[in-house]
Structures are given as C-alpha cells and as structure tokens.
Design goal:
Length: about 110
C-alpha cells in the first residue's frame, strides 16, 4: 500500500484533509468496556479515523492542526500529509500556520490537563 501511494507525490507537496470525518464523540460512547461484541468499539470508532488510518498504514508523515472551532468550542482538526521523509515540510508549514492562527492558549469547555 505504501508503494502504491508514492507515485502520487510526484505532482504534489502536501495533501489537506479533515482530521476526523465526524465531530468528536462524547466520552463513553465509543467503548464502555462492557460490550458483548469486542469489535463493537472499533466499529464505532471507524468514522473518527477515516482520514487518518490510511496514512498510519502507509507510514506517511501527517500532522493534525486545530485550525477551526465548532460552535460548542471544540477544536476542529485539519490534517496535512506529506511524502515519505518530508516531516521537515510538515513542521515548517505547521509552524507558519500556528503563527498565523495561534491555538496554544485555546481550550475547549471540557479538557484534561496533563
């Protein structure tokens, strides 16, 4: 799969996608740990990883940036993907975007602090 996508990068530097296909799930809605079907949480999580899973499988570098916010105050991620070995490009573009649209001080209404 990784080899199959390499040719696409001949014509492009970056790919822009949403980070998630749906808004974030409320806590406890994907898996409770008490499902009869152990695959149920994975099946419920699929829409949340629709844009990220393929790049995890191919090993391409990607970065998610919280460039938008929902009406409820939740971050909406934008994913940038680059060719193999082009983490340098991702980090340079991400730094420029963070400077243009600062997000470090923004917090959703409910969050977990480290």
């Amino acid at each position: 799969m990784a080899r199959a996508v390499l040719g696409w990068w001949q014509d492009y530097d970056l790919l822009l996608t949403p980070t998630m296909a749906v808004p974030p799930a409320e806590l406890g809605t994907i898996g409770t740990g008490h499902e009869e079907n152990p695959c149920a949480p994975i099946e419920r999580a699929i829409p949340y990883a629709a844009f990220t899973a393929g790049f995890n499988a191919t090993g391409q570098p990607a970065i998610s940036l919280p460039l938008h916010w929902s009406e409820a105050g939740l971050p909406i991620g934008v994913q940038l993907v680059a060719d193999m070995g082009r983490e340098d490009l991702l980090l340079r573009v991400a730094a420029q975007l963070e400077e243009a649209v600062p997000w470090a001080q923004r917090r959703p209404p409910t969050f977990a602090a480290a």
